[in-house]
Protein 1
Amino acid sequence: MDRKTDVTIVGSGPAGITATIYLKRALIDVVLLDKYVPGGKVNFTAEIENYPGFNKISGPDLAGKFFEQIQNFGVEVTYGDVLDIEKKADQFKVITDDGTITSKFVIFATGTDERKMNIPGEDEFKGKGVSYCAVCDGSFYKGESVAVVGGGNSALQEALYLSGFVKKVFLVHRRQGFRADELLVKKVKSTSNIELVLDSVTLAVEGKELVSGLRVKNAITGEEKLLPVKAVFPYIGQIPATKGLSKLQVLDEHGYVIVDENMETKVDNLFGAGDVVKKNLRQIVTATNDGAIAAIEITHRSL
Ligand code: NAP
């Protein structure tokens, strides 16, 4: 698949989708590229309560609505894994595992990948009890006990989701204080089948064929215990997904893409948008904001 277009949008999460909508309304041609499904991480989120227009909507339903909207503009997602991005003269070449896309502009909106616990058993039991997506795999554990690891919005939100149908959720966090919205903290603390396991670090996922426990250690007392769980859902943060950007030197020391107020990197006509960029607030609304700003700037330059 070798293609030429005006704008290559890498990533079809909320940032990439919004950029697509704005650019298509300006009659600018785009290739919207993704390696998984349209909607990005929204697909793996149980419930969203802070996106205007919906009191409450499931992540997969919102992702479906995003997809429907770009289909109305005749855009299909092109599937491919970006291996490299090169710039020659005023053209970018986005090299994927399925061919090259050439364009004057690139919007890089790949989001983030989940951080791993890096403990024994994590890789071994992936798909056999270790899952990074409660909304995809949670229902396998109806009536069972499970563990969620982490103390941010994702961990608390997914613990609440799981508590709706599992017997018990152990919420394992390495400190006492959470870094999640107060509303979520309050809900978690008042949910009878969520047990907080605080000041605790994870040591190992244990089991035979399938997970049967999560070994944790209290960081203050040193006491170890085995939580009797059939599944472990780590939600311990994200790392920026920047494969393909290494040659262009647009990343900060933590690997996030540095952009200016127009969402442009220091490389002319290379834009960043969404969770992959260096910023303070990573939300669906801030991702859509970034996509719109990048698209409007490109529109102005294309007139
Ligand atoms: P996050 O906010 O970075 O939280 C990660 C959590 O994992 C922290 O509590 C951290 O502990 C813990 N952690 C990090 N490394 C660890 C390790 N090696 N072992 C054990 N625990 C570890 O990540 P997130 O919850 O995935 O959220 C990512 C971004 O998306 C945030 O900006 C968040 O606000 C946003 N988000 C928003 C919503 C919403 O608005 N409803 C929902 C989901 C995500 P410490 O606290 O001790 O550092």
Protein 2
Amino acid sequence: MVAEQLIPHGVTDERVLRVMSEIPREEFLTGRARRHAYEDRALAIGCGQTISQPLVVALMTQSLSLRPESIALEIGTGSGYQAAILSRLCRRVITVEREPALAELASATLGRLGFINVEVAAGDGSLGWPADAPYDAILVACAARQVPAPLIDQLAEGGRLILPVQVIPEEPQDLRLYARNEGVVTYRSLFPVLFVPLRPG
Ligand code: SAH
């Protein structure tokens, strides 16, 4: 997966490549999806949701420039795989999932595999998670019409936020990387992506 899918497509960060090779993606999947764990595609995880393609997980993670002391927020826990990747590159991860059944399963999977610095919360991620704000990194794994204001509010100085924005209905989404520098928030577009929608609470 690392040699064929990630390195040739722009994943250059050695730490990201290492954790992607160490964390077993199949452990976050169930049933028939398990045998496809290392293929270059998104896979079903239940409740009509999907785990992202490994390349997208790697590129999104890399863009956040995590440091060992960073605190990260993820919106859309899904299987917990992306949270697991983030957790190996920073101090602490808080991840919010709207579907209680998925939150419970992801929490159990992360616990079983020994990811002790990840906390899974069930709730509406468009509100962020004010209790532990501000965050050095925020990763949104579902597509919003626009960036939810609470997430910008909860972004630390020098922090980065990545999310897919559904600019035109039915079209691919625009993956945007926001940064807060000296109080000013700016963004740049990375590439088109296909995520499930961020749904209201
Ligand atoms: N990062 C996940 C994949 C996420 S799929 C992984 O690694 O497996 C997107 C997830 O966002 C779905 O599980 C969906 O239920 C969740 N979601 C959608 N709207 C949400 C909201 N408002 N708040 C929190 N989670 C939401």
